[in-house]
Specification:
This protein has a two-stranded antiparallel ribbon with strand order 1-2. The chain has 23 helices and 2 strands. The radius of gyration is 24 Å and the shape is globular. It is mainly alpha-helical.
Length: about 525
């Protein structure tokens, strides 16, 4: 058998390209689906496993943090084992950990299995994007990214709806079991199409110290954010200790990575204006988006009386415009300054969140759904232009590191966004509850009238006060959700100047085309 030689494989043709696109899209779909399918199922999972809904958010954040930690390792693993083998192995391990999640007997084990699931899922999205771009000629690279973006946007549409239906009609465990047939189909389709397009493999040293420090400070910071509200933040020695570990760990991590010859995270990329501005914009925007998309179904189910499936139906339309517009954005991102496209996305996000900040407890289904439909427009103009901005001007050999680092920051921001949004929501609800409760006294004619009406309806004084307390809770959490939506809208507006600090350079070939030409070398397989 002849020695493997590096080469750049030609694009796939005809049916092979179609089936290859479907196979890669299924894996991406499965991965992104699992980051959103649990959102509407959190109350059911928490109730079944005997924990609070606030503790149940660990089901989401544990997946996100572990996924983010695995992302910087993708480049090293791909060079060590090969892109195609790593991609298929990642799919198979994802199926196994999904099965374990479904079997979890308690919240502790579910969180552990979700963390494992997120870790093995790390390589799937960057590798699927790279393999897909290599399947298309450079002239169609924009279309390829548009198609890939559709997949990442369809999953959040289907996730809440499917999760709600499964929770209502079967059992929450099946939100994890459904990954098994999808994963099997993707793996068995991917291998025969891509196995002869395997990348060159060679041994590289791994920055074990940097990886260890990364796990320590990111994990400590995430646990601090999740436990902070429950333990009264820095009044708790445990939270204070976690904060010190996170701070010291981060400082040591930065010092080590900036001096290491083969760092696990290439922090020097942040010296580039396009990279740091684009990464910061896409990460903060994603954190805001993800935090709000977790908060909305929690509010609807806990305080508006919506069952899981109805909450899922209210979130599902986010992909309608996104699916339609993403290919158009992908085909035209070479022709239009991506800063204008990203700015438009942030303006639409601001409008959507301002609409939500005016919700009240009397809002009907259509009123609640309208902002979700409009949000799909923002999603279509969000990912592709900002990805182009942050990768512009980076040399071909640094593209994989840049993509992994930006994805790492974005996913960590999504996990932090979930923790921060739910914590602020709880804190603001307590403030509003105290303010509203002050008005329930004998000097308030409305309160007196309500209590008298409840008494006439057969309620005892204690029952009448309990009923009023429930109404106050509903109003307090509604006002708190409005506060989070409004603050998020203002932050989205502040991201627009950040985008314009970048200086993307549009060439005749266009930024997307240049990105598609930077994929790593592959090896030929000699059948003899």
């Amino acid at each position: 058998m002849a020695k493997a030689l590096p080469f750049n494989p030609p694009p796939l043709q005809g049916s092979a390209r179609v089936w290859g696109t479907i196979a890669l899209s299924l894996a991406t779909f499965m991965n992104v689906l699992d980051s959103s399918i649990a959102n509407v199922s959190l109350p059911a999972i928490a109730g079944d496993l005997g924990v609070s809904v606030n503790q149940g958010t660990w089901v989401i954040t544990s997946f996100g943090v572990a996924n983010a930690i695995a992302l910087p390792l993708t480049g090293w693993l791909a060079q060590r084992f090969g892109q195609v083998r790593l991609f298929v192995t990642s799919i198979l391990l994802f199926m196994l950990t999904s099965f374990l999640c479904g079997l979890a007997p308690n919240m502790t084990m579910l969180i552990i299995f979700r963390a494992l699931q997120g870790f093995v899922a790390g390589p799937m999205i960057p590798l699927s994007q790279g393999l897909l771009l290599a399947s298309y000629p450079p002239a169609l690279a924009g279309l390829a990214m548009g198609l890939w973006a559709i997949t990442t946007l369809v999953a959040p549409v289907v996730g809440p709806l499917l999760g709600g239906w499964i929770t209502e009609n079967i059992n929450w465990s099946w939100i994890f079991y459904i990954n098994i047939p999808v994963g099997l189909l993707s793996a068995f389709m991917t291998w025969p199409i891509y196995r002869k397009r395997e990348s060159v493999t060679h041994k590289l040293p791994i920055d074990s110290v940097g990886l260890g420090l990364l796990v320590i400070w990111v994990g400590a910071l995430q646990i601090m954010l999740d436990k902070g509200h429950e333990l009264d933040w820095f009044q708790s020695p445990q939270v204070l200790g976690l904060g010190v570990v996170a701070l010291v760990g981060c400082a040591l991590f930065l010092a080590w990575e900036l001096t290491e010859e083969h760092p696990v995270v290439e922090l020097r990329l942040f010296m580039r204006r396009n990279f740091w501005s684009g990464t910061l914009a896409i990460s903060v925007g994603y954190g805001l988006f993800f935090g709000n998309i977790v908060l909305l179904p929690l509010w609807l189910q806990q305080f508006m009386g919506y069952p899981s499936i109805d909450a899922g139906m209210l979130l599902a339309p986010v992909g309608l415009f996104a699916i339609i517009l993403s290919p158009i954005v992908g085909k035209n991102v070479n022709r239009v300054d991506p800063r204008w496209l990203a700015s438009f996305a942030f303006v639409v996000f601001t409008v959507v969140l301002l609409m939500r900040s005016h919700f009240n407890t009397q809002a009907d289904f259509g009123t609640l759904m309208l902002p979700t439909v409009v949000q799909g427009i923002a999603m279509a103009f969000f990912f592709i232009p900002l990805s182009v901005i942050l990768l512009t001007g980076i040399s071909p050999d640094k593209i994989p590191a840049a993509s992994g680092l930006s994805s790492f920051v974005r996913i960590v921001a999504g996990s932090f966004g979930t923790s921060i949004a739910t914590t602020v929501w709880q804190d603001r609800a307590a403030v509003h509850h105290a303010q509203l409760a002050e008005s329930i006294n004998l000097g308030n004619a409305t309160a007196t009238q309500v209590l008298a009406g409840l008494g006439n309806a057969g309620f005892s004084p204690e029952q009448a006060l309990a009923q009023v307390s429930r109404l106050i809770d509903q109003q307090a959490y509604m006002l708190a959700a409005n506060d989070v939506f409004y603050a998020s809208a203002l932050i989205f507006l502040l991201l627009i100047p950040l985008v314009w600090l970048s200086r993307p350079r549009l060439t005749a070939a266009g930024p997307i085309t240049s990105i598609s030409s930077t994929l790593p070398a592959f090896k030929a397989t000699d059948k003899s």
